[in-house]
Design a protein that fits this description.
By secondary structure, the protein is an all-alpha fold. It has two domains: about 210 residues, no CATH class; about 250 residues, no CATH class. About 60% of the residues lie in helices and about 0% in strands. The protein is built from 21 helices and no strands. Helix 13 crosses helix 15.
Length: about 525
Amino acid sequence: MVGPMDVVKCIWLPRRDEMRIILQKYIADISLFYHIVHVPSLQSLVEDIYAGLEANIRVDVGGVLLLIAICASTTYAWSPPDDIRCLFSDCTEANAQSTFWIKEALDVIDHAQRTAHASMECIQGLIILFFVFCNHESVSFRARSVFMTAIAMATELSLHRLDDPQGSSMPALVRMSEAKKEIARRVWWFMVATDWTLAQFCCPQEGFYLIQKNQMAVNKPRNANDEDIIEGVEIRDRPATEATCISYFVQRIRLAEVCRGLLDRTPLGTTNSEAVVYKDVLDADAKINQFLQEVPDFFSLDCSSLDDLPVTDPRRSPFITAQRYMLSLLLHRQLCKIHLPYLAQGTVDPEYAYSRDVCLRSARVIFELDHQLQRENLPFFNSRLRLAMVLRSVFLASIALVLNACLKGDSDESNEGGDEVAGAWKILHEAQGQFPPAAKLLELSIQILRKYKIKHRALDILQQQVSGLSPYGDSFPMTPESANQDLRMTTIQHSLGTETESTLMEQHWQVLEGKMDLNTIDWDKLFWGIDAPFM
């Protein structure tokens, strides 16, 4: 019954043929980083929902939310190579639609909450939407709210007791087949891994996680491909050395456990001496390096034997290559971050020389990873800069190289160092058209170097690049986005030519004044201050 003051909202979905194309893109390029779905079941769900709509039958709210979240995620990640799918006029049109689908998803979430709806598909949709929010606006309040709603819904369905012998009689679990339980394990453990990892980042949730290890009874998901999960058939748990569609997910769980262990060692409110804090940094370094040594060979950067495998081998698939890039990026970003505060001290104090070396080495690895990915010529390369975590890693690495350049004496300055910094800025410059906060990151990076090294090869290189680029030249195709290109170029030229008048920037410079004591700088809070607390 609808009252006279009630508003009936209409939720739009793409046509069935369009949804199939969007789903293909999602499965091929996006799901590999958070594989919380069962592809055969998802494909069947799409057909069932559209069949229900055509028959004028009420469809599942959770399924609708899942499809809309996939639309939001896919249109956001749409890149020029996807134009051959002929779904949008170009990637700019696709990207612009992402916010429309986000609004649609929020309306469906509101309806689900009003009707107390809870389903596995709804949780999957919430998780996907959480990552869309993270890419659009970082780990914002809205992003965290969506994620916490997913956790609340999961506990409502008793997913935290999936493998609890005393919970097997619960109605929600009794109705679940073993195949559905396996997908539920993926969903639950993905939320666990995200919750524990999120506590590492500077946002209101820093140092805090919701899901307690001792308050859940859920086995880890099996290392199985989607094709292995069939109703009525025993699911085979493949060895970790065998590449599957969730190999990356398995490693993310391991990494999250490392993060949780490090957090538990230093409770909130604990004040430690500098020596104790640095010992914790070295312990974290040891755990991350141990993690690097224990990853399967197909995720290792040092495994040259992969080149000898046939191109049809799963370990050489585009999925695994993109996942190897992302996992390595995560690990080296973390190494760069924990050692960055000691970069300056490591220049003059042998006690911290190790931190300086590790910080710079990991920063260089981050950029080498980008070059390797470009050589692989994968579709993911074209949309990587739209991922907030990738941009955060690139900026962190660029800051390490810039600060190292600031700390060097003029006699130590080399062409190689200038080329490194210029290469980092080139990536940030390329990202501006895909990710607006990149312009702020680039400006901050340039200003830091110019503040302490008004004459530096990297500044000369960038000045030449900027001077040689026309806003409407071959480098920038005529699209709606290109209208803003001249504004971005002006911003860079302004950064190169004059001091910024931004009060926020001046606060950063004041922190960097004097001896540049990097221990006093919380780089995550610095990112947060410029609206870029990227996950």
